Amino acid sequence: MTGNDFIKDFPVLMQKTGNGKRLAYLDSAATSQKPVSVIEAVEKYYKVNNANPHRGSYELSMKSTDVYENTREKVKEFLGAESSKNIIFTKNATEAFNLLASSYGMDFVNADDEIVISIAEHHSNLIPWQRVAKVKNASLKYMYINEDTQLTMKEVKEKITDKTKVVSITHVSNALGTINDIKSIIDYAHSKNAVVIVDGSQSVPHMKVDVSELDADFMVFSGHKMLAPMGIGVLYGKLDLLHKMSPYIYGGDMVEYVYEQDATFDAVPFKFEGGTQNVEGAAGLMAAIEYLENIGMDNVHAIEKELVKYTYEKLSELPYVKIYGTSDVDKRCGIISFNIDGVHPHDAASILDSHGVAVRSGNHCAQPLFRFMGENSVCRASFYFYNTKEDADQLIEAVKAAYAMFEKWR
Ligand SMILES: Cc1ncc(COP(=O)(O)O)c(C=O)c1O
Predict the structure, then answer these.
(1) What are the mean pLDDT values of the chain's consecutive 10-residue runs (410 residues total)?
(2) By three-state DSSP, how is residue 291 classified?
(3) Is residue 333 annotated as a catalytic residue, yes or no?
(4) In this protein, which residues make up the domain named Aminotransferase class V (predicted)?
(5) Which of 45, 59, 255, 295 is the most exposed place for a label (fewest CB within 10 A)?
(6) What is the CATH number of the domain that holds 165?
């Protein structure tokens, strides 16, 4: 299996760029492209099933509810969760982290407690904890990565202590692609009675992730990075924790009884889903998971690993390219961040774009990480199973061209 087997399913990938070049889309860590089956599932929802879910007692509303709830069941199976009650739909990973910080952090973190995160977190798994730490007089502690950008168990054991209430950590770094040994971190945090939140934004779309095997307390990810539409995300949580947490968004649909001065709330997961939900997003997420299941998550991972190895080797041959992240390709997901000597990453990204290569440049919503590494910004090429060796070759040629373009200033 290679990306060539799948490109035909992705209309965006079939088009040429504005300057007539074939498109090498290497920004799937930001958002993935969507296959026809997902686009059609959204269209079908509006043609056949659209009504407000959960509220109506008429047939169409019930059909809409079914679309939503069947997707919850699908996500439960995909993640290996115990029950569909473990699955809460959010807008995206960012909203899921805000929910956790607000409903778990504000309720259960107290003065002098510790919240432990890693220096490689996306801002969405960092800023909400800064707020909890400030409001609750708790401390926000960081686990730092080593020279090979890996988080060692030595560091983990030094930072997670008996005072740690929450450990919130990414499975895969969006900026460096490094895969954390998440199972060992979870086990150690549990030995200290801390609750562990895993940011699955860059792992769930790319590899088999089983929340029960990992024994994660919470897991967060966004649908749009795994073929689904934007605007639907997932928060998995263990039931005993979800039951004791306060709601996050208050209003319609999440209540049981409402009185003039008080209200009681619906059961988990509904108490966390106030207001009209993104049913079209759920319809798309269902089709997205079906598409991924048809390929098999192990195959998705294998295709990406092959591509990353190929690209890493080719880029390493260019003496003027600095690659960030671990040199152990087995510990790297489909992400390669790099800089070209003497070319600002934003310039590099524009030049690459003129060669039909879409990469992202900047600090990738991980400013503390780049400050720690002594860098301002990098270019990031991120792969998905629909990418090909031709995409990688196009990237390499464009990098050579970018370097050559700045030759006269050297
Ligand atoms: C590791 C990681 N966590 C969280 C997020 C936030 O995702 P979203 O913008 O979909 O909320 C991202 C997005 O890039 C990410 O890569």
Answers:
(1) 97 93 97 98 98 90 97 98 98 98 98 98 98 98 96 98 98 97 98 98 98 98 98 98 98 95 97 97 98 98 97 97 93 96 96 97 95 95 98 98 87
(2) helix
(3) no
(4) 25-395
(5) 59
(6) 3.40.640.10
